[in-house]
Amino acid sequence: MLSRFLVAIAAMVAVVAASNFLVQFPVDAMLGGVNLGDILTWGAFTYPVAFLVTDLSNRAFGPQRARLVVVAGFAVAVILSIWLATPRIAVASGSAFLVAQLLDISIFHRLRNGAWWHAPMFSSLVSSALDTVLFFGLAMAPAFAGIDALFGMEDSSLAFPAPLLGIGPEVELWQSLALGDFLVKLVMAVLMLAPYKTIRDLVLRKMPVAA
């Protein structure tokens, strides 16, 4: 039990630290006539795995220990993020991560006795929406440029114009990135159902599962 609990913490730390680094890099590719750099960062593909780790921890250990996984992962990941990313991204990531993951645990716990896919699906969708708003607002919106100033850094806000999702009306780049990120999270929430069920069935059934 302890070893699996430590694995869950290590997995959470790895996912968040990697995502905080990769979110700094837009996807430099074209899809048809759409510049994906106006829509996505590479972090959009790794961060949703954090919800998988949280949901599996919740299913295996119960909400109390799942919160410990989140808090432990949060503490270590913020330290790593300061090293791998900018202070502003570390603050934004830490705030969004903690609030969204705790919300995910609460929603999952309320739905855990329903169909196997209800809890991971709906908890991830709602929490991902909150996570996206908090992260991109704090990390890239001009309203929070004071975070950069607090650390003696230049304004890193992404407020210059870009077409929404590469094809729509012009908006501030951070808004297009946020919407693109959320759409990827919607897709990833569905894709994560397969590993969730597989791990739950093949691994977690071998240990006592929290009610």
Automatic annotation (TrEMBL):
The keyword Glycoprotein does not apply. Its main location: membrane. The chain crosses the membrane at residues 34-54, 66-85, 91-111, 132-153, 173-196. GO terms for cellular component: plasma membrane. It is a multi-pass membrane protein. It comes from Devosia marina. This is Probable queuosine precursor transporter. Involved in the import of queuosine (Q) precursors, required for Q precursor salvage. Belongs to the vitamin uptake transporter (VUT/ECF) (TC 2.A.88) family. Q precursor transporter subfamily. InterPro entries: YhhQ. It comes from the Bacteria. Keywords: Cell inner membrane, Cell membrane, Membrane, Transmembrane, Transmembrane helix, Transport. It is found in: Cell inner membrane. GO terms for molecular function: transmembrane transporter activity.
